Amino acid sequence: MSTIWFATSNKGKLIEVQERFSHFGVEVEQLIAPYPEIQADTLEEVVEAGLTHLWKEHARPLMIDDSGIFLDNKEGFPGVYSAYVLHTLGCQGILDLMHSDTERPAHFECCAGYIDEKGQVLVAKGRVDGHISKEEKGTTGFGFDPIFVPEGHDRTFAEMSLEEKNKMSHRSRAFDKLAEMMELEKD
Amino acid sequence: MSTIWFATSNKGKLIEVQERFSHFGVEVEQLIAPYPEIQADTLEEVVEAGLTHLWKEHARPLMIDDSGIFLDNKEGFPGVYSAYVLHTLGCQGILDLMHSDTERPAHFECCAGYIDEKGQVLVAKGRVDGHISKEEKGTTGFGFDPIFVPEGHDRTFAEMSLEEKNKMSHRSRAFDKLAEMMELEKD
Q1: In a 10 Å sphere around its CB, with 0-12 CB exposed, 13-18 middle and 19+ buried, how is residue A153 labelled?
Q2: Is residue B75 within 8 angstroms of chain A, CB to CB?
Q3: Do A76 and B88 touch (CB under 8 A)?
Q4: For residue B107, is it left (φ>0), alpha (ψ between -120 and 50) or beta?
Q5: ipTM, two decimals
Q6: pTM to 2 decimal places
Q7: What domains are defined for chain B?
Q8: Among partner residues A37, A87, A93, which is closest to B97 by beta-carbon distance?
């Protein structure tokens, strides 16, 4: 196996995952193929439904992922609705929501999924804990990166190089686990 | 027709709709029957899918509704996700989100639907414009009522009697239109 399709329209995600799979000597190719995101309580459900849908349409092994940011003191908001909230409120909306909060714990979760030629599904989860910054900082990455400071650091994901972020990100952790489940071997 | 089933677990909604249909000499009975809410862009889609699902399960004419609050300066957030946002952030979350906003326009929308014995679907929409108050006020009603001030008034929905709110609410307007489409006649 030397090429795997990754269905995403998000260039930032693509680059992260390409970097990750390069350690296994695997090339990741982008597949532009929208799929319906079901309303579900968990990222896993969204990913499993998406994989099955895409596999029926494109009949080839492929990967997708879904991720979200969870504010630990706000019942996990926005969680599975992160994309919607990013689109409507943006990072500033999260800062506004927390304007009077001194405790600001949050975590990112990513669920990465792979469906093989037989329609067999593998899913893996990755998580990174941290907190929400007081203001937006940095320009790299995407999504809520400018307001998320991972544990043990004092800079946001958007202030880090892709390489530095990839060492600890929820997405890296999920795709590393997925690669392991796919029995890929590190170069 | 003298009794119609209304599938809802929300006592506040039930009372509103009962009051409304009493003007048509129709009794509204509560049906406790949960149904999946699909992830959709519009209230109509949620209602149509819910009606079809319930009709298959319960094989009787019935009504449901779905409603949301839309912040006009926040891309319509939380809209179809209002129930989730009420549960996670509550009214206080909306106030936090708007803590620095002087312009605070918002509207409520309700989509009411009816499915008849043959599975034929009718849907009607109601809307009320207004703004978000600076703090929670009042104790009647439910949901986001304590922070919504309808146009032309200076009190929130939660500071009004059910009768006063019902004269102008999005839900009343939707169910009045629905009653008209059902060809019910006012007493």
Answers
A1: middle
A2: yes
A3: yes
A4: beta
A5: 0.79
A6: 0.85
A7: 3-181 (3.90.950.10)
A8: A93
